[in-house]
Amino acid sequence: MAKKKGKRSGNRSGRRKTPEVGFGELPFLPDPRSLEGLLHQILSEVSPQTSKKASRLERAQDLVYEAFEAEGEERIRLAEEALEVSPDCADAYVLLAEQCEDLKDAIALYTEGVAAGERALGKKAFREYAGHFWQAIETRPYMRARLGLAQSLREAGRRDEAVAHFDEILRLNPDDNQGIRYVLASCLLDLNRDAELARLLEEFREDASAAWLYTRALTAFRSHGDSPQARKWLTKGAKANKHVPAYLLGTKTLPQAPPELLTMGGEDEA
């Protein structure tokens, strides 16, 4: 868990500096969210918005996509400008929350972002898109805001609240494009909600990632001890990624910052 820094006044004034990467000097990698900008532009040209409210939101979202490609103060400036254009721009709140030094401020901003996303989408979209939510690009700012809120609540120790948000995100988008299941599984382990975790593991039983297989091994051990079932999953986990045990046993030290890219079966994944 990241250490919390001193609070600064105002929800939008607390800024977090870009964290240092623990792997030497790496080139700046573009924010993957900026790639949506091109798709957003194409869809806007195919189906232009007619209402003034929708048009303002489109302009605000364009500013956010520009902000995703920016760094530092320029990113913040563009996010704040987007909110001046449209207070329903959920991604603008997400960007500002990511810069907060105080966790309470971040939670407040993510909460505003979730509310903005709900206003922008409307109740009809939640009914129509439920089950395949992420496929509609206009839902993604809301999904990012809700994920950010859930993660911040978890960091604040409010795990039961976080689980409720993670569950709802998965209900809306069971394909789990955001990787919700991994952090949800961790929360359920912390809360000893083993029955729910067992259902989650079964729901994504085809997941062959190291994180999932080692979680299955841990869950089996918690339920049955040093059993054939626990050893089966541990063996599968070790085959999927042989580097994990060294970090679990402490013979290797975790880096200060996670790697930018992951390789299945690689040490970066471990």
In short:
This protein is mainly α and 270 residues long. The protein has twelve helices and no strands.
Protein architecture, described:
The protein has 270 residues and is an all-alpha fold. 60% of the residues lie in helices and 0% in strands. It is built from 12 helices and no strands. It has helices at residues 36-46, 52-68, 72-85, 90-98, 103-129, 140-155, 159-172, 180-190, 194-203, 210-224, 228-240, 244-249. α5 (103-129) crosses α6. The chain is elongated, with a radius of gyration of 20 Å. It starts with 35 loop residues before the first helix and ends in a 21-residue tail after the last helix. The model is unreliable at 1-28 (pLDDT under 50).
Features:
270 residues; mainly alpha; 12 helices
SSE layout:
Elements: H1 36-46, H2 52-68, H3 72-85, H4 90-98, H5 103-129, H6 140-155, H7 159-172, H8 180-190, H9 194-203, H10 210-224, H11 228-240, H12 244-249
Helix pairs in contact: 1-2, 2-3, 3-4, 4-5, 4-6, 5-6, 6-7, 7-8, 8-9, 8-10, 9-10, 10-11
